[in-house]
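Q: Hi! New to this. If I give you a protein sequence and the SMILES for coenzyme A, can you show me the bound structure?
A: Yes, paste them in.
Q: Okay, here:
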Amino acid sequence: MTSVQIRTATSADIEAIVLVHKDAFKGFFLTSLGDGFLRELYRGFLDGEQGLLVVASRGQEILGFAAGTTEPDTFFKRLRRKRGAIFFIRAIPAILRRPLPVLHKIYGALFYKGDQPQTLHQAALLSSIGVAPHFGGKSLGGQLLAGFEQEVLSKGLKFVYLTTDQENNDHVNSFYTKYGYKQESQFMQQGSRPMLRYIKPLGNI
Ligand SMILES: CC(C)(COP(=O)(O)OP(=O)(O)OC[C@H]1O[C@@H](n2cnc3c(N)ncnc32)[C@H](O)[C@@H]1OP(=O)(O)O)[C@@H](O)C(=O)NCCC(=O)NCCS
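A: Thanks. Here is the predicted structure of the protein with coenzyme A bound:
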């Protein structure tokens, strides 16, 4: 059987990444924005000099991905400037279905700044990680984290941080804890959504 390889994504992987995203994040807001939106989002992680996009592949098949940025402060601003209009156009079908909640959430997503802890420097943000559900629990998520961390180290950075929901999210929280991420703080997103921020020092810090 062909073995799983963790590698930097290429533009040829985008369609498959969108499929994995839709499977792994069923019912999530970003998924509801449609394939066109997701395509632009993951292209953004691929194209930007500051973007990071790693995949787990087996032959031609993509089984999982991890996406993030080495420059959380400016990455989303640049993404908004370069792709804001196209994001909006891609989201139009979802906006027409539920205008107010979708516009409100898109506004929040487009003005997202990465929620970086103020005292943390030389840190990359892990924005999204997903594994095809039929491949869950086989340590692929752990391998993707390791591949992502390797890319971060190769850019000379020393930490990875991420945020995730505190509530109804035990398996994700235990996933990050299992792989050495330490809970740093709790905060409220958009006033009412309790979030946890995790940090992991890389290398021999
Ligand atoms: C989170 C995710 C990436 C984990 O990938 P994975 O390949 O299943 O993870 P691994 O096999 O490397 O790690 C397994 C560990 O994760 C946690 N975990 C994963 N799935 C779990 C489940 N269904 N129930 C309980 N714990 C679970 C446990 O800590 C488990 O360790 P254990 O087996 O020793 O108990 C995957 O479940 C996924 O894609 N989820 C949907 C998308 C998502 O929520 N992403 C994270 C937020 S961006």
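A: DSSP finds seven helices and seven strands in the chain. Let me know if you'd like me to explain how to read the tokens.
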